[in-house]
Amino acid sequence: MNIILLIKNIYHEAFVNLGHFITKNFFKAFAWFSFMMFFVVLYAFVFRVYTGFPFD
After folding, report:
1. DSSP labels for 5-20?
2. Residue 56 domain-assigned?
3. Exposure check for the chain: N or C terminus, fewer CB within 10 A?
4. Tens digits of per-residue pLDDT, 16-49?
């Protein structure tokens, strides 16, 4: 019984921070992707204004 509790504690300590690591990196990648998409939209808008696109 003692061995089972030790194995349970080892696995718990090994995987407890893994979720935080994945979540943190996912949101970091999502933030960079969002910034890139924002700058693409900003570039497209400035390009359309510069070339005289009629916004009807």
Report:
1. HHHHHHHHHHHTTHHH
2. no
3. C
4. 777 777 888 899 999 999 999 999 999 999 999 9
SS3 of residue 52 by DSSP:
coil
Domain range for residue 21? Answer: 2-50
Helix or strand (DSSP H, E) at 53: none
Residues 13, 6: Cα–Cα separation, whole Å: 11
Per the structure, how many domains does the chain have?
Answer: 1
Give the residue from 31, 11, 13 showing the smallest Cα distance to 23.
Answer: 31
CA angle 32, 34, 39 (to 5 degrees): 95
Residue count (the chain)? 56
Output the six-digit token pair for 11: 């696995």
Find the largest Cα–Cα distance for the chain.
77
